[in-house]
Design brief:
The complex is a heterodimer of chains A (387) and B (234).
Chain A (H helix, E strand, L loop, with lengths): L3 H8 L3 H30 L9 E6 L7 E2 L2 H6 L4 E9 L12 E5 L3 H4 L3 E2 L2 H9 L3 E5 H7 L6 E5 L11 E12 L10 E5 H7 L6 E2 L1 E6 L5 H11 L7 E5 H12 L2 H30 L1 H9 L4 H38 L10 H28 L2 H5 L3
Parallel strand pairs in A: 4-9, 6-8
Antiparallel strand pairs in A: 1-11, 1-12, 2-10, 3-4, 3-11, 5-8, 6-9, 7-8
Helix pairs in contact in A: 1-12, 2-10, 2-12, 10-13, 12-13
Chain B lengths: L4 E12 L2 E13 L4 E5 L6 H8 L7 E6 L2 E2 L5 H11 E4 L11 H6 L9 H14 L15 H13 L5 E5 L7 H18 L2 E5 L3 H4 L4 E6 L2 E2 L5 H6 L1
Parallel strand pairs in B: 3-8, 3-9, 6-7, 7-8
Antiparallel strand pairs in B: 1-2, 1-4, 4-5, 9-10
The chains are: A alpha+beta (387), B alpha/beta (234).
Chain lengths: 387, 234
């Protein structure tokens, strides 16, 4: 600690240069925080503890193709299947397309299978008893300031009503919560009765989008999935059954390999950062060669000079990194509040902070290594003579 | 009383490209404890090289240097660094203070290498500044001080850890006559009142007059020893 003021004062010897370097580091770590938050949200999609005990059955041709409702009872009879539910993508728009959120028509027992969606008993009863009832996640309700009892109109983009109208009106009867805040994005969804949807839609009656099976033993998932798919083998509606985790991963990968994209961007950003801060540190040490020589003259050993320069480099990175990550945490919380599920993001939590701080130390050591070595190895008499 | 510094057959050869330049040639020299020695000579005569070797900043090519009975020519780099920290104070022509630190923090620097607690370090630095007459400038940065004041801060830094030996390389070379006289008087006081052994390189015969003893170097050899007694009598 007795050397801290020495390191600190050396760091701010050229205030403007240090400030601009700090801003660059801050920008890099802001980007890191934001992108890692997005990557984490995609990586986390569907990977819940409960998700391991659920299978998803979709059409083997494409997720876009429907399956007959008649499969319901046959899937239910497959040994190992504890409960079956089903759902249909609706794709309705609330007021403006930019207000995107997931909205699905679901079976009455949907919340029994998705037990992580916590709905008060009274509201669950109201949902089951109200034909036009709908349930929304707490984040979504907060985003649009919805309260129970309100009517929510959705504009259909796929399914008009059989009277030709595109406007579907639902009565909000329940608001569910997700206990695990890492899965908070699951609260940006709306669910209503498949039966109401099926009776009122203009086409596709009797079809469901996908089935969800709750299974007793996750280790039996493969056998159960094969048994379910065997039901429709060689029919015009062959199915593909997989674990919910695998389904979510393949669904997300339809858009892009988010991990690769984020990794590539961050790689480029940090490479540039290393060049930039490396140059700054090299310049800073070059200017201070006589000062480092003086430290060595009065008895600072080589390892102390090495440590001082490395500490300066790590401090520079840490200051910028902490500021960038703090800004990212603030920005993510604002984005999540304002845009909800439109941009899936995890809160900037401990994991991102730890990764970020580890990176600041690592990059600090990398960029400080050469200047520190130069400071350590300088010959006092040459440095004092300006050679 | 034995010599504080004993130099025997000391040579230093620098390699410049393909050329080997012998800067010091078999120098023999004894410096008594409490001496104030001025080293004079033309540019390139080897006086700064000799000073660097005495201060343990460089290693000889040949010969030996013992300070207080310790053969410093046999010490490794880290041992030399430790030795410098506890035995030698340095004063340079251009002061070589750290510009971003206050006068007090500059003076405190050598004490960072000791195990003294912060409060004691600050107290020692304050005493050293008091001794050079700059107690009221403790919080000023070097850029806010005159050349003479900066050199006195450098002297405070040199003496703060109470070394036996002070090596001064042209300490008045960058100062006006008035400031130079103040600095030299201060060095003289440190020598007479506090018993510091001082080796000073200078071009200026007037500066050398403050020393108790002057030696001349030319082409790497001592050429004209001057008795301290004669200097004192004049």
């Amino acid at each position: 600690m007795k050397y801290f003021s020495l390191v600190w004062s050396a760091l701010f010897r050229r205030k403007t240069r240090t400030l601009f370097t700090l801003l660059s580091i801050m920008a890099a770590f802001l980007l890191f925080g934001l992108l890692d938050s997005v990557r984490g949200a995609f990586a986390n999609a569907g990977h819940s503890v409960v998700g391991a005990s659920r299978l998803i059955t979709i059409s083997k041709v494409s997720f876009m193709f429907a399956l007959p409702k008649s499969l319901y009872m046959r899937i239910q009879s497959v040994p190992g299947v504890a409960e079956v539910t089903y759902a249909n993508w609706f794709g309705g728009i609330y007021q403006d397309p930019k207000n995107f959120f997931a909205n699905e028509a679901v079976a009455p027992n949907f919340f029994d299978v998705y037990s992580e969606f916590k709905l008060p008993a009274g509201e669950l009863r109201a949902f089951k008893e109200t034909r036009t009832g709908a349930v929304v996640g707490a984040s979504l309700a907060k985003r649009f300031h919805w309260k129970i009892g309100e009517q929510i109109p959705l504009e259909a983009t796929i399914f008009p009503q059989n009277g030709g109208s595109n406007t579907w009106t639902f009565d909000l009867v329940g608001i569910y919560h997700v206990a695990n805040r890492r899965e908070e994005s699951q609260e940006d969804a709306m669910f209503f009765h498949w039966k109401y949807f099926d009776e009122a839609r203009a086409f596709g009656r009797g079809d469901v989008g996908w089935y969800i099976e709750k299974i007793g033993q996750p280790k039996e998932a493969d056998r159960i999935a094969q048994a379910i798919d065997a039901i429709s083998a060689n029919s015009d509606h062959e199915t593909k059954t997989q674990s919910e985790d695998a389904f979510q991963s393949s669904f997300v990968s339809q858009f892009a390999d988010i991990g690769l994209i984020v990794g590539s961007i961050m790689g480029a950003v940090f490479f540039t950062l290393i060049l930039l801060t490396g140059n700054t540190m090299a310049q800073a040490v070059r200017e201070r060669i006589p000062e480092l020589a003086i430290l060595k003259t009065i008895g600072f050993p080589n390892r102390s000079v090495l440590a001082l320069v490395l500490a300066e480099s790590v401090l520079l990175l840490t200051l910028g990194g902490v500021a960038g990550l703090a800004l990212a945490e603030f920005a993510v919380s604002v984005i999540r509040t304002r845009l909800g599920a439109q941009i899936p993001m995890l809160p900037v939590g401990l994991a991102i902070w730890l990764q970020g701080l580890a990176l600041t130390v690592l990059i600090g050591l990398v960029v400080g290594a050469l200047p520190a070595r130069r400071g350590m190895r300088l010959r006092i008499v040459d440095a004092l003579a300006g050679r | 009383m034995g010599a504080l510094v004993e130099i025997r057959s000391l040579s230093k050869v620098y390699t410049r490209g393909r050329q080997k330049v012998e800067v010091l040639h078999h120098v023999d020299l004894d410096i008594a404890p409490g001496d104030f020695l001025a080293l004079m000579g033309p540019s390139g005569s080897g006086k700064t090289t000799l000073l660097n070797l005495i201060g343990g900043l460089d290693s000889p090519t040949e010969g030996s240097i013992a300070v207080g009975g310790e053969r410093i020519d046999r010490l490794g780099q880290s041992q030399l660094a430790r030795w410098r920290a506890s035995h030698v104070g340095f004063v340079f022509q251009f002061y070589n203070l750290l510009p971003m630190l206050s006068a007090a923090r500059n003076v405190e620097l050598p004490l960072l290498l000791t195990k003294l607690p912060a409060a004691k370090r600050k107290r020692h630095a304050a005493v050293a500044l008091e001794l050079v007459g700059l107690a009221d400038r403790a919080s000023h940065r070097p850029g806010e001080l005159s050349g003479g004041q900066q050199q006195r801060v450098a002297i405070a830094r040199a003496i703060v850890s109470d070394p036996t030996l002070l090596v001064c390389d042209e300490p008045t070379g960058d100062l006006d006559r008035q400031s130079a006289a103040e600095v030299l008087t201060l060095l003289q006081r440190l020598n007479r009142d506090h018993g510091k052994t001082i080796v000073m390189v200078t071009h200026d015969p007037k500066a050398a007059e403050y020393a108790s003893h002057t030696l001349h170097l030319d082409k790497g050899s001592l050429v004209e020893p001057v008795e301290a007694a004669a200097q004192g009598a004049s």
